[in-house]
């Protein structure tokens, strides 16, 4: 059972990202402030949920959250500042959208940079422990998946609708066959035998 609160602050937001390990597309983060009375028996870390359940939870989270924000940081920016910085930047951009701003931030994982002067805590596997981080993980994943489904139409041979840009065997085979697109992260190891990839 997930816990609703970590701190004693009334306005506590959870933040999480999706797409960090992908070869293509953005890294997407969400931040969510939930009311102390919020309850949902299905909500969990997005990786533990089916796509159907995530899609069903998205409108519930959006309508019942005190506030939420979602932000993409795209492949070109990821290549410039690296994936860790891009993930944190996406989290900061999602927190920027919260009205009101949180008094405390809980972050999934173990890396974060201070946001303004708001106190924060990083929590390993936080998306399986706290409702607000789990809710953020669901929003980040559903918004990112929707974006990957959209760009799949432009480049169907990579099958992003299915693999969402993750380094599946099929995705790597398509890179071997067709090269890379404008959506690929050029600083990532796109193929195991990277040196042979003609960029």
CATH superfamily of the domain at 12-145: Ribonuclease H-like superfamily/Ribonuclease H
Succession of helices and strands:
EEHEHHEEHHH
Radius of gyration: 17 Å
Name the beta content range: 15-25%
Q: Give the structural class.
A: alpha/beta
Broad shape = globular
Q: Please tell me the overall pLDDT.
A: 94
Give the helix level as a range of percent: 25-40%
State the name of the first-level CATH class of the domain at 12-145: Alpha Beta
Could you name the ranges where pLDDT drops below 50 across 5 or more consecutive residues?
none
Number of continuous helical runs: 6
How is the largest sheet built, in terms of strand order? 3-2-1-4-5
* N-C termini distance: 48 Å
- Total strand count, please? 5
CATH domain fold name of the domain at 12-145? Nucleotidyltransferase, domain 5
Please tell me about this protein's structure:
This protein has 199 residues and is an alpha/beta fold. The chain contains 6 helices and 5 strands, in the order ββαβααββααα. Strands 3-2-1-4-5 form a 5-stranded mixed beta sheet, sandwiched between helices. Helix 1 packs across helix 4 and helix 2 packs across helix 3. The N and C termini lie far apart (48 Å). 43% of the residues are buried. The mean pLDDT is 94.
Quick take:
With 199 residues, this protein is an alpha/beta fold. It has helices at 51-64, 75-81, 83-96, 131-152, 160-163, 169-178; strands at 12-18, 27-33, 67-73, 104-108, 120-123. It has a domain at 12-145: Nucleotidyltransferase, domain 5.
């Amino acid at each position: 059972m997930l816990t609703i609160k970590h701190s004693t602050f009334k306005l506590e937001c959870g933040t999480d990202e999706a797409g960090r390990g992908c070869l293509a597309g953005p890294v997407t983060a969400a931040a969510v402030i939930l009311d102390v009375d919020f309850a949902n028996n299905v909500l969990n870390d997005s990786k533990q949920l089916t796509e159907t359940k995530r899609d069903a939870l998205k409108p519930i989270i959006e309508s019942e959250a005190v506030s939420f924000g979602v932000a993409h940081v795209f492949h070109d920016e990821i290549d410039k500042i690296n994936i860790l910085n891009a993930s944190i930047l996406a989290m900061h951009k999602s927190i920027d959208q919260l009205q009101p701003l949180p008094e405390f931030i809980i972050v999934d994982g173990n890396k974060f940079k201070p946001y303004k002067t708001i106190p924060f805590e990083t929590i390993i596997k936080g998306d399986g422990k706290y409702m607000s981080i789990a809710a953020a993980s669901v929003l980040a994943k559903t918004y990112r998946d929707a974006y990957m489904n959209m760009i799949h139409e432009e480049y169907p041979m990579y099958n992003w609708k299915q693999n969402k840009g993750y380094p599946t065997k099929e995705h790597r085979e398509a890179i071997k066959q067709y090269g890379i697109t404008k959506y690929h992260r050029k600083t990532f190891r796109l193929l195991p035998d990277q040196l042979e990839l003609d960029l």
